[in-house]
Amino acid sequence: MKIVAFGGGTGLSVLLRGLKKYTKDISAIVTVADNGGGSGVLREDLGMLPPGDMRNCIIALSDIEPTMMKLMQHRFKDGYLKGQSFGNLFIAAMYEIFGDYEHALKEIGSIFRLSGKVLPMTLQDTHLKALLSNGEYILGEKNIPEYVSKIKSKIDKITLVPNVCKPLEETKRDIKEADLLVLGPGSLYTSVIPNILVDEIPRLLMESKAEVFYVCNLMTQPGETDDYDAFDHVEAIIKHSSRYLIDYVIVNDEFIPESMIENYKFQGAKQVLITQDQIKKFEEMNIKVICSNFIDIKNNYIRHNSEKIGQLLFNYVKEKNN
C-alpha cells in the first residue's frame, strides 16, 4: 500500500504513527513555510528550509530507540541555543554536509530506518501571505494567526510567496503511483492548504488513480478556523483548489466532555462538530463522509486516534484491491 500524506506540524506526524503500522511505503509531503521558533531562526541564519515540521515527521516514521527519539526532540533550555531543538540542528548539519535537501533527507531516512520518506512541499524559499476578510494582507506563517486573533477578522485566502512554487519530481511520481492520498490533519491555512498551492499538485491529485481523503481537525484553531465546523474546513480547501479534489472526509462525531477541553476553551478553541445538515451538503457534492470516534486524549492533549485512522485507510485499500 503506497500512501502519500500532506500536512505539517503535529497533525501529520500523529497520522504517520498510525499509518506506518500498515505500510512501509509512505511519502510525507511537509509544509516548509514556517518562519517562527527555532525553525525560523535556522531558516534566517543558514538560508535553509525550516526543519521543524520535517523533524516531527521523521521521528514519527522512524524506527529508533526511545533515547534517540528523546534526543531528537530535546530543546535546549539555556544559553545561545535556548529554544532550539537538537533534531533541528541535526537536519541543519546534514543539509550542510550534503549540500542539498533531497540528498540530506535520503541519508536521514537511512539513518533512522524510516517507513517511507519525508519530502518538503517545495525546495524554494517560500512564505505564506493571507488576505483577510477586511481586505488586509499579512505576510508570514507566524504572524497570520496572531494578527487574525488580535483584530478579529477572518482569513479569506492564503497564497504562497513567490506565487509559483514547484514540487519535487519525486512528489509528482509518488502521487501518480499512490494507492491512497491523505490531506491533514493539521492547521488548515498554515499546514494543509499550503501543500495544494504548490504548482501542479491539485491537478495531480485529481488525475491520480487514488482517492483523496481529508482528515478533519478535532478542534478549531484560534486565529485560523474560529467557529469552523467540518464543512467549513472542506469548503476552505475547495476554495483554494477544486470542488472535485476531495473524495472522502474523515470526521470525529464523538462529543468531547467539557472537562476535557477546558484548556482549549481558555485559548479560544472549540470542538469541530458534524451535523446531519453538513453530511447532506457533503453528499450533494459527492463527498463521502466517514464518521466515528477518532479521539485519543493523553495528558490533556486531544489528538486523533492514529491507529484507528490507519486501520480504516488500510481496510479501504484492501477492500478496493480485492
Blueprint of the fold:
Layout: E1 2-7, H1 9-19, E2 25-30, H2 37-46, H3 52-61, H4 66-73, H5 86-98, H6 101-111, E3 116-120, E4 127-132, E5 137-139, H7 143-151, E6 155-161, H8 169-177, E7 180-183, H9 188-196, H10 201-207, E8 211-215, H11 230-239, E9 248-252, H12 262-266, H13 276-284, E10 288-292, E11 295-298, E12 301-304, H14 306-321
Helix pairs in contact: 1-3, 1-14, 5-6
Description:
There is one protein chain. This protein has a seven-stranded parallel β-sheet, sandwiched between helices. It has a three-stranded antiparallel β-sheet with strand order 5-4-6, with helices on one face. A two-stranded antiparallel ribbon has the order 11-12. It folds into two domains: 2-31 and 161-321, Rossmann fold (3-Layer(aba) Sandwich); 35-116, no CATH class. It is α/β, with parallel strands linked by helices and 322 residues long. The mean pLDDT is 95. Helices cover 43% and strands 19% of the residues.
Q: TL;DR?
A:
The protein is of the alpha/beta class and 322 residues long. The protein has 14 helices and twelve strands.
Structure class: alpha/beta
Point out poorly predicted stretches.
Answer: none
Envelope shape: globular
Helix percentage range: 40-55%
Count the helices. How many? 14
Indicate the proportion of strand residues: 15-25%
- Could you tell me the radius of gyration in angstroms? 19 Å
Oligomeric description of these chains: single chain
- Rounded mean pLDDT is 95
Largest sheet: 7 strands, parallel
N/C terminus separation: 13 Å
CATH class of the largest domain: Alpha Beta
